[in-house]
Amino acid sequence: MQSIRDVAKRAGVSISTVSRILNNSANVSNEKVSAVKEALNYYHYEPNQFGRGLVKQKSNMIGVYFPFSSFSIFETSYNLELLKGIEQILPQYNYNMVIISESKIYESQDESGPRFLESAGQRKIDGLILTGLINKQASELALKRLIDQKYPVIYIGKKLHQRGMNIYAQFENYTINMMQELYKKGHRCVLLYYMHLHQIYIENISTQLEIELPGLKIIPSGLKNIAESREMIAAQIKEYVRDGTCTAVCSASVELLRLIMGICVELRLSIPDDISILSVEHKKGDGALMYPKISAFYVPAIDMGREAAELLLNMISHDNSEIISKEFVTEYIERESIKQLT
Asked: Are residues 84 and 102 located together in one domain of the fold?
């Protein structure tokens, strides 16, 4: 395979001249342009996006980072909606995206750091969207390193540093709102499922609700992944709902919701007569596709993706380092899965 060096040699010009012609970045004589075009055709040379970026220190690529998960990136509605939103913005700026994911749980003692540091450090990408940080301390340090270097980065999640930009979906707020909705309908014992990533927020939420909603008992259950938690979830629903006093279950996602509903069928629990269910949905209308239709708080992941991409690409284009933290409000959609208790 021929390189840009071969093209330059055949055309009798420097590599930088070939690069300028490819990128239309400077005036070059018609004679040299013709010679380079002839060499390009001769070698059937097609410059790749990364190769051109190395010359002009720009790749026209952004990275979208996903931490390790037992789920494939493409198996959760949150990730798919987020990527869909990002993809809708990129053509407006003549950009593409590259997905960066971890093959294992990132540990703080890993000297190389999370994979997004390598892509950013080698200028393979012009900017970065982070969708989650598993190891709080180590990942925060990696993010802070990029912010300190004024590297274009947007974090989707609660703000971690005074400087930098983030997009947030108010996890604490909509979790509190979920409990309030159930409380209004007479439920006083709720089994709350959440992803382990949100562990640091749950204690504050529980403390606040104990004060605001007298008599409410929350049984929190953090999940590192859904697939390996099936037996635990089944045992908890049997203990706290079928054989206990819990009357409601909160689901962190539609993917988890499907598992919970399957377990309810196995335990012969009727929704909502025996158990009320309230979920989070990231693709609007997903809860309406269930039977019965599931009440849910809609988290607008597609809008979050659009906003993150817009902010990042503006930062890249205009070297804008203004501090921005934007919160997205969730929408409660009441359907058929919550029973009004007397």
From this structure: yes
What token pair was written down for 109? 């003692």
* 43 assigned to some structural domain: yes
CA distance 54 to 66: 25
Position 91 in a domain:
yes
Same domain, 180 and 268: yes
Compute φ and ψ for 277, nearest 5 degrees: -130, 135
pTM value is 0.79
**Alpha carbon of 225 to those of 84, 160, 208: distances in Å?**
23, 23, 27
Cα gap 71→198, rounded to integer Å: 17
* 120 domain residue, yes or no: yes
CATH number at residue 249: 3.40.50.2300
Q: Is 227 helix (H, G, I), strand (E, B) or coil?
A: helix
Domain that holds residue 185: 171-298
pLDDT tens track for 97-125:
999 887 665 554 455 567 788 777 767 78
99 and 218 in a single domain? The answer is no
CB distance 193 to 223 below 8 Å: yes
Among residues 292, 219, 273, the alpha carbon closest in space to that of 249 is found at 219
Question: In a 3-state reduction of DSSP, which class is residue 13?
Answer: coil
User: 286-300 burial, b for 16+ CB within 10 Å, e for fewer?
Assistant: bbeebeeebbbbbbb
Q: How many domains does the chain have?
A: 3
DSSP 236-275: HIIIIIISSS--EEEESSHHHHHHHHHHHHHTT--TTTT-
Per residue in 186-236, pLDDT tens?
A: 999 999 998 877 777 787 888 888 889 999 999 999 887 777 789 999 999
| Rounded distance between C-alpha atoms, residue 219 and residue 232, angstroms | 13
